[in-house]
Amino acid sequence: MNDNEYRVVWGKSGLYTLETSAWRTFRPQIDYSKCVGCGTCLLYCPLCCIGKADGRIVIDLSYCKGCGICREECPKQAIDWIKEAR
Amino acid sequence: MSMIDALTGNECVAEAVRLCRPDIIAAYPITPQSVVVELLASMVADGKLGSKVVDVESEHSSMSVVKGAAMLGKRVFTATAGQGLAYMYEPYFSMSTMRFPMVMTLACREMISPGTVWCGLQDALSVRDAGWMQVFCENNQEILDMVIQGYRIAEDHGVLIPINVCYDGFYLSHQTERVELPEPSEVDAYLPPIDLPQYLDVNEPAIVDPNTVGSFLIRYREDHLACMQHAKSVIADANREFAARFGRDWGGLLGSYRMEDADYVLVTMGATTGAARVAVDIMRERGLRMGLLKLRFMRPFPDAELADMLRGRRACAVIDRSVSFGWDRGVLSVELAAACGAHGVELPVLSFIGGLGGLDLRTEYVVRAAEMLADAPAYLKDGAYWMNEDFLGEELGK
Amino acid sequence: MNTVDYLASREDLVSPGISACQGCMAELSLRVLLKCLGRKTVLVVPPGCMAGAGVGGWNKSMGVKVPCAMPQLGNSASMLAGIKAAYDLVDPDVHCVAYAGDGGTADIGLQALSAAAERKDNIIYVCNDNEAYMNTGFQKSGTTPHGASTSTTPVGSLGRGKLNFKKDVPMMLAMQNAAYVATLSPSYMADFVAKVQRAAQIKDGLVYLHILNPCPTGWGCQGSRSIALGRAAVRSRYFLLYEYRDYRFEISAPTRAVREPLDVGEFIRGQKRFAHLAEADIDEIRRVVQQRWDKLSRLAAE
What we know:
The complex is a heterotrimer.
Chain A: E1 10-11, E2 26-30, H1 40-44, E3 50-53, E4 56-59, H2 69-73, E5 79-83
Chain B: E1 3-7, H1 9-20, E2 24-25, H2 34-45, E3 52-53, H3 59-70, E4 76-80, H4 82-87, H5 89-97, E5 103-108, H6 122-126, E6 133-136, H7 140-155, E7 163-168, E8 177-181, H8 184-190, E9 207-208, H9 214-246, E10 254-257, E11 264-268, H10 272-285, E12 290-295, E13 297-299, H11 303-310, E14 315-320, H12 331-342, E15 349-354, H13 363-374, H14 376-379, E16 384-387, H15 393-396
Parallel strand pairs in B: 2-3, 2-4, 4-5, 5-7, 6-7, 11-12, 11-14, 14-15, 15-16
Antiparallel strand pairs in B: 1-8, 6-13, 10-12
Helix pairs in contact in B: 1-2, 1-7, 3-5, 7-9, 10-13, 11-12
Chain C: H1 3-9, H2 25-37, E1 41-44, H3 49-52, E2 68-69, H4 76-90, E3 95-101, H5 102-107, H6 110-119, E4 124-129, H7 169-175, E5 180-184, H8 189-201, E6 207-212, H9 216-219, H10 226-235, E7 242-245, E8 248-251, H11 253-256, H12 264-268, H13 279-301
Parallel strand pairs in C: 1-2, 1-3, 3-4, 4-6, 5-6
Antiparallel strand pairs in C: 5-7, 7-8
Helix pairs in contact in C: 2-8, 4-6
């Protein structure tokens, strides 16, 4: 009934997404020789961009802001901190 | 078949709400509206009304609750007055600009300060630019009828704007009058079934009221104003069909009395209109061709209709139960001047302000205003005449 | 299922790219909250960090994958009560959730929240407590702690930061006998998830969840340190984890496990908002932290 798009302020035209990966100055990289798969980083990543695939911890860097919590909290120091090339 | 009863204005509101059967009611009691909240609670307690009542702690919350319920397309109701309306202003503005239709009754009350709980139209008129429709009632029957018409007008899919049904606090809220109560089936036949969209559906997630850019907002306002103008024809239709079904024609945007050949026109709102009818009769008996215009809708404002009714008359007098700060006039007087100016109608306008803070707008005052109107050129001045205790002069006053 | 596997298996219902700061715990808490509650949820997000970050949507795009509405700052609880009243007519199982900041909760929204608790409205009201109005630039709120420098309680030749102590909103709601009250920290995720799951089961009244979300930008610390700060807040008993239900307090496991509390100074040092504090000021905070712990211990022992 709201054929006029200016009648009620509502909508469902997709997700609002910012390319927050551009904020990064460093990016996390898992050193699988040290990673024990405990998932501490997965618990604490504010973006929930760390997941599990085939039993391994994986980081999706698409939106990662590079806050460094995963590296800080990793009990095995298994996350390397790589400077982003600009 | 209608039933005849003797009801106060507040009782009329409650009876009308019972007939309109809103899904959700949230209201906070405030003088002089409290009886409305009490009666609705009693109706629910007695099983006479199936609405869900949310007993809130403030007017800010009452409007917020009904706004939340309106997001799911529910028919909702609240009522307030004076300070309550002022306290509710934030969600009040948002309700109308979200375009959620509803009826809210106002038992109009003067605004503080000085401290007062008594009658005045200042509360409603101070928020006339908050995006709501506002209709002002002359008597208790009109209150009842306009709550019912209000849902029909507000929920019209070409309108979708909430409406305030306003009536003079104490003078109407607490005064008993003869009222015809329609049957529920008659009201059901008059009101369309509730058909409002649901915006918060977990199966089809949507965002409601997000932040927007100005380029969106300006078009949004444009539509709101356009729908407000469209509401004028919806109001006329609603009135026409109501008259056909229930036998009472309130006139739509404007009411009139003995206007056919009138040279002089009194213009009033709300309960003052009753005294003005008497004044017109008295002046007619004295051989003066006087008529009366009763402004019913302050929003949408019937500018063209009002100007047309005044075109060619010799003079008019506006009696306000409110002030427009910054003008030396009442609100209706300012609005009427704007309408006349916009539509090229030139005639002398006398402005009167009275009845503030519950002061009696006595018939003698209105008759005196009518006498001055009949001799308008002699009384023309910038600003308003104040209907205070000195208004009648020593020979007429106490 | 352990917490890691549980959270890894749950759907993230927040937009992947919202403009919350690096290391924002409010963002993490919101994501986990919605992961636990699932899609049968309606969210209201009043003005604040999360609305500002885009959760409340922008133009007609959405910041979350559940229905979401933006109330005004002070009426989250009452607007949500209206939504819930309407949903009771449609589908009573839908979770009606508010995610409001500490200012919108402890200050301007407290009256509406208290009334909703009194009415036993079955809503889940979540307070994202980052201890100031962070979205608009660190203005003091009712939950800003004693001594903190904010933009409205600045440190100067006379100013010494906020002079009063933090308003204890979860305790207020418990004293009002809300159906369920819990305090949460994202640094203790198993406890966090269990409390949200329990909240989702409560059907007899208002649920109040109070989350202390460290705010790197407002507190003045590295974004990578916010989980560690939240942990220090719990280990020092600066922030106490507990639940309240049916007139009973229960101290939660992470707080129960603190036998030898960390010095509060360890929590305070390293935060710019407390940098001006002298040892005597910190002593004052230590005294209040101790009193709060004593009070909770007594309540839980009853």
